[in-house]
Each structure stands twice: as C-alpha cells, then as structure tokens.
Design a protein that fits this description.
361 residues, alpha/beta, 8-stranded parallel beta sheet, 37% helix
Length: 361
Amino acid sequence: MPLIAYQTAHGCNDYPLHFAFFEALERRGILDHYDFALDPMVDYPYCGKLMKRFPQLHLTEHYSWPRTAMRWMRSHVGRFYRPLGMLDRFDAVCEGCGGHIHPHYLKSGVFRAYPRVRRRAILFQSIEDGALANDEVRESIAQTDLIIARTDESAKRAKAAGAKRVVESCDIVFSHQPREIPERAGIAVALRVPNQDPGPQYLAELRRALEHLRGLGGDVDFVQVEGRIGQEMRQWTALAGVCGSKSVYHGDDMYIPFSCRRQAIISARLHTTILALLHGNRAILQFQIEEHTHKMAEMLRDIGLTSLVVRPRDALNTETMSSFLASPEVIGEREVECALTEARRRVETGLDAFEEWLESI
C-alpha cells in the first residue's frame, strides 16, 4: 500500500481537527487501503492518542530510522534541527488540517522536512496573506499537487501562489456528527491572548472580563488563556454554593465544555465555536482576536451563517459580555441547519478530491 507521511498533527488548541479528519477517512474505508504515518515532531503524545483511536495509523519513525534520530535530536539538540530529512522514503506527504500556513507559525517551506517526496497535499488549511510573503512558503505551495482550502479566500491565495490544483472546502471539524448532545448548565467561555504582543491595554481588559465572568452566579466553564493569565487561572479554586461552580479546562480537555448544549457561549476560538454549533448552541458571542487572519468570518460567510457576527478584538470587554448575557442573540435554527449542511457538503467535496489524489499515487 502507498506510504503517506502526515505532518503537524497536534492537540490542545487543534485537538478535534485530526480526529475529525481520520474519522472521515475511516468512514470512507480509506485507512484500510493506504498506510498513513504520523510525524511526531510537533506533538508526540497527541500522535499516540490518534493511534489508540485509529490503530491503522503508525509513526513515521516506524518506517524510517532517520525519523527516530530526528526525534532524539529534537529533544537533545533543537526543535527544528532536521538534517536527515533527505534520507526519507515516502510515497507522499500531507500537511495536516488546520491554520498552520500563517506568518506566526510558518517561517520556511511547508514540506521542508520532506524535500525528496514529490507527491504533496495540503489538507483543509487556511492560507494567510502574510505567510505568502515568505518565498519558501510561496514556492512550496506552488509545488503542491493538491490544496484543500477551508475558505474561499484561502483558495484564492493558493491559486495566486501558483498551486496546481485547489479545492474550496471548509473546516474538517464540521464533518463531525455527535451521537448525542448532552445538556450542561451555565455558560462556556474560551478567550485568548493573541500570538503577537497585544499590549497592556488588551491584557488589562481581558483580565477584567475574566474576573467579571468569574463573579457571575451559576456555572461558568473557562478555557485556560495563554501565558501569564493562564497561570493565574490555574490557581483559581472551584467555588460552590450560591455562586455555582467555576472550572478551568486546559490542554486536550479544553473542548469538553463546548461539546454539550449550554445557556450561552462566549468564544474567541474557531473550534470551540464549531463544536458549540454542532452541539446545538445558538446563543454565541464570537470574537476575532488573532491578527493576520479573518478565517472565522470567511468561513461563516462561505457557509451562509451571517447571523453569527464576528466582533473585533476592541469589542472584547465587560460591557459587550454583560449586554450579551442579559439578552443573548439566538441564531435561527433554520439558518444554522442550512449552514451546517453547506459546510458538510464542502467538506465532502474536499474529501472527494483527496481520495482522487490518493488514487493517483
């Protein structure tokens, strides 16, 4: 069977992505006809969780002794030290799902660790303008056989970079269909600090918002925020009694509060919102915090979910949240169902293209 390396699989903030992707391949029977090898360089423990769920998967180092040496060097010499990549022998390589093609995350070519593998695919990715300013990134996109873009704007950028084949799709997590939707009291909150320095004013406002939400009556589940603020949140203790309970979720558990129906959702993350929608939530306050990307707004526009407004970073404050919680705007069920149907149709279009590409290897 063809041997395919799958790179950049990682958990935490992207935990649902790769599970949703391999679930989709499992439904189609693809995992039984192709050997997928996970590259563990980014997140070795997460790859172990994927292999436990999908026993058909293996690690790249199971097939390639240089990969074993590279993981040793990552631990003992440096994270991105990969001089042995040219010794690899794989039939194809895939850049895993997500938003990795972004100027903050990607500083060199997409397939730098697999220079001699010529069959290449980029799967269900956002491609940001800033990333294409890098000549290596732009060239690697142009040399890719297949790009499945998760927004129409990303598809346009890939085509402008000279990609051979580009398919407009959506985020792979939309393909997830919950078996059951449990009810859970209270609200779920996922705020964040952007990758680039947001400045003291934003951090102060974020702290005020978190303390305001923490002081609410009833149950409030928080996703741990990055950096110093997250360390402070880890020190919070659960409050009981008339104030309800306040819990902080982190790491690979961060999506648990959004995998059920809540009274309201406050989110500054993409997949907390997608999972909340899939689990029946219709009262959602959405923010876009990260710079150099409009992926959330682009995605919602592509699938026709225009009633879910994406508010800018400047709107993240206690006044906005208090107003929302006092009178939540509820998105119409018909609009959400139509949007989810369109999102799943787009995902299936991307999967069709990927299956066709696999057959050509």
